Every structure is written in C-alpha cells, then in structure tokens.
Amino acid sequence: MIRVLLVDDQPLIRSGFRALLEVEDDIEVVAEASDGRDGLALARRHRPDIALIDIQMPVVDGIEATRRIAADPELAGVHVVILTNYGLDEYVFNALRAGAAGFLVKDIEPEDFLHAIRVAARGDALLAPSITRKLIDRYVTQPPRADPGVALRELTNREREAVALVAQGLSNDEIAGRMVISPTTAKTHVNRAMTKLRARDRAQLVVLAYQSGLMSS
Q1: I need a labelling partner for 215 at 20 to 30 A (CA). Which of 22, 84, 141, 205 fits?
Q2: CA angle, 15 as apex, 76 and 202 as ends, to 5°?
Q3: Residue 93 class from Cβ within 10 Å (0-12 exposed, 13-18 middle, 19+ buried)?
Q4: Which residues carry this modification: 4-aspartylphosphate (predicted)?
C-alpha cells in the first residue's frame, strides 16, 4: 500500500487529489495539511511513502518543508513530490535542490497523476528526459560544491553505466532492459551509486553525472 500525505493550502486541490487517490486499491491518503509546518508534523507522525507538497504555502513553504524532510534521517523513506501551477521554474529548481524527488503540475491528467505517484513510490524520480535536459542545462553552469569526479571513481563499471542511464531519464526497469539484468539488480546498482556519491535521490544523481563529466553536457 502506497501511503500519501497531502500538503496544500487550497482545500479544493486537496479534496480533488484525495478523491483520485482513494479509489485506487494500492494507495491510501494518511493525512492532509494546509501548510508546511503542519505537513512536517504529520510526516513525522505517519511516515508516508509520498509527501505531495504545494510549493507556495503560508507559514512554511514547500521548499523549506522539503529541505527539512530531506535533512531528517527518520524521514529518509519519504519521497517528496512538489505540486506547482507553473511547471519548471525557479521555485521548482530550488525544491529539487532541497531534496524533492520530482514535481507535478496541478493540471496534470488524472491517469498521469496516478502513474506518477506509483513511479515516485518505487524510488524513481519524476524527471522525464525533457525535464532532465532543462535541469542539467541549469545546473551544469554552476560549479559543483565538491569534485564529483573523485567520488565517481569509487563506482564500479556497472554502477557507472547505471548512473549514465539514470542521467538519460531511464527508470530502473528501462535500465534493466538496457543492461540485460534484472530490475532488482538495476535498482541495486543505482542505490549503491547514490550511497557512494552521497546523492539523496535520482535528481541529484543526474546532476553529479553531468558535473563529473560522465555525461556530455
């Protein structure tokens, strides 16, 4: 069962998402909050698989809420998905940098919304290849905080290959098909690479892949 926390200051938005989610047999809405502060408290109480968080809210906004969730070891299993009205903008970039696994535009089609929840729950980032390209175009122009090439040398050849495929926007299943391995093995390669590179999620792994020179910018 995928356990979801809804955090949005608009009751109509929350009720709409809840209505979509609660008819699914494998998804459960465990709590709702109207601001980031209450959302954080509920995340600590319920430990959801997914926290759907609006990016602009009173008291504590979505970026700060994401940052606090990412920094809390007890919430390591919570995947933050940012909700936005405007698509890929400065707020979303900051949320991804803060630790969000991806983002959804609020006018998304219901079928795509449900698919996205399941994608995020299994640990894949919500970054389509086109979004990955925009993300990288933004980040590779900035100097890395440390030399990612040093950490990259700690990866095995198969882990490096998996990271390169993540950077192309592939899911674990697609990586498995490309590398001719099982999805479980693909996920293991990706997870080990994330641990070695100290990347919280696949979005950060993509950035490191480009900054290290593993991928051509």
Answers
A1: 84
A2: 30
A3: middle
A4: 54
**Per-residue pLDDT reduced to its tens digit, 139-166:** 545 544 445 555 677 889 999 999 988 8
Exposed (0-12), middle (13-18) or buried (19+): which is 199, by Cβ within 10 Å? buried
Number of H helices, E strands in the chain: 11, 5
Question: Higher-confidence residue: 40 or 89?
Answer: 40
Query: Using one digit for the tens of pLDDT, what is the confidence trace for 164-180?
Result: 888 777 888 889 999 99
Identify the weakest region by mean pLDDT among 6-15, 86-95, 187-196: 86-95
**Model pTM?**
0.69
Burial 97-124 (b: 16+ CB within 10 A, else e): bbbbbbbbeeeeeeeebbebbebbbebb
Task: Say which DSSP state 89 is in.
Answer: S
As a whole number of angstroms, the distance between CA 188 and CA 145 comes to: 26
Q: Which residue has the higher pLDDT, 49 or 200?
A: 49
Q: Which helix (H) or strand (E) holds 183?
A: helix 183-197
Q: E-strand spans in the chain?
A: 2-7, 27-33, 50-54, 79-84, 102-105
Beta bridge partners of 52: 6, 81
Residue 134: CB partners within 8 Å, gap ≥ 6? 88
pLDDT at 32 over 50: yes
CA distance 43 to 57: 16
